[in-house]
Amino acid sequence: xxxxxxxxxxxxxxxxxxxxxxxxxxxxxxCPECGGRFTTTETASLNVIKxxxxxxxxxxxxxxxxxxKACQGRPVTEGDxxxxxxxVEEAVxxxxxxxxxxxxxxxxxxxxxxxxxxxAYLRFASVxxxxxxxxxxxxxxxxxxxxxxxSAAASDEG
Length: 158
Prior knowledge:
Number of strands: 6
Helix content: 40-55%
Radius of gyration: 22 Å
Distance between the termini: 56 Å
Shape: elongated
């Protein structure tokens, strides 16, 4: 880390803190050459490898825009979409890898979207998983109904 004042190539960390969002670290530094103090923010990069092989930084906005299409006409708010995108980002960051396939992002979206809105989930899954027949839809609906029945049975027992 170069000093922004004298361009000295070294600095000493005086204080480190996790930022409010927990995704970055704020460090207070001091230059041993000129004594100047400055702040740096460090974040772990997370890159997505697209099907074409192109790599780009992960974007919550891209998650939101992709899911927003599936949620058109559904009772889903922008706040709901923001929370979903945050959950997806947290899930993919917890894998501990710095690069992941776009396919893995799609898989990470399916779970939270299923909890948010089943119709939007079916819409997203039909495109993402390339449904090509009515049987694909029927199978997915059957799974949703089975999960709903399990949840109802579990809540009746509790």
